[in-house]
């Protein structure tokens, strides 16, 4: 397994937070951060081959993480750890969120909502529900198709067979 660490990220932008020296800042226990894994080209177990698309690969690599010249793979997961070293999942960055142990793609849910269900446009995002350990529900913002009398409740009811509860 790759050695992983958690680094601070800005809660609003998701951007990596760096110290005055330009290096990333490791998270303290109880503080959520982005999971990164060290890349070492001369070690087959710590290499990162990347994706077929080089620009997608470059998006997942950050440099000058813990020392000048090093690099890490950014997983896209936000985690936190306790003072005993146990690690907990908090969220997934980007256009997915976790629900019942599964990654849910917001764009796939949006595609299910329209156009067959009378929705002209929808934006789907996960919301945190107090008392839940993870993002728990889909909260669509939508615009009905012209000429329809579709309501949010009708859309929700007709989508139940397509979206996991």
TrEMBL record:
Disordered, as annotated region: 146-165
Q: Name one GO molecular function term.
A: long-chain fatty acid-CoA ligase activity
CC annotations in GO: endoplasmic reticulum membrane; plasma membrane
Biological process (GO) annotations held by this record are: long-chain fatty acid import into cell
Which segments show compositional bias classed as Low complexity?
A: 146-159
* Residue runs in coiled coils: none
Which controlled-vocabulary keywords does the entry list? Ligase
Q: Which family does it belong to?
A: Belongs to the ATP-dependent AMP-binding enzyme family.
Q: Which PANTHER family match?
A: AMP-BINDING DOMAIN-CONTAINING PROTEIN, LONG-CHAIN FATTY ACID TRANSPORT PROTEIN
Protein known as: AMP-binding domain-containing protein
What organism, scientifically named, is this protein from?
Nippostrongylus brasiliensis
């Amino acid at each position: 397994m790759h050695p992983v660490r958690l680094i601070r990220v800005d809660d609003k932008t998701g951007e990596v937070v760096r110290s005055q020296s330009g290096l990333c800042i490791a998270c303290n226990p109880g503080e959520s951060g982005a999971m990164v894994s060290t890349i070492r080209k001369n070690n087959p177990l710590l290499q990162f081959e990347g994706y077929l698309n080089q620009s997608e690969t470059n998006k997942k690599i950050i440099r000058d993480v813990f020392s000048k010249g090093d690099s890490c793979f950014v997983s896209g997961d936000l985690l936190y750890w306790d003072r005993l070293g146990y690690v907990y999942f908090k969220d997934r960055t980007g256009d997915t969120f976790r629900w019942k142990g599964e990654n849910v793609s917001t764009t796939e849910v949006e595609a299910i909502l329209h156009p067959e269900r009378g929705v002209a446009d929808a934006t789907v995002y996960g919301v945190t529900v107090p008392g839940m350990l993870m993002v728990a529900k889909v909260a669509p913002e939508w615009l009905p198709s012209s000429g329809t009398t579709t309501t949010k409740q009708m859309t929700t009811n007709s989508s139940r067979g397509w979206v996991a509860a």
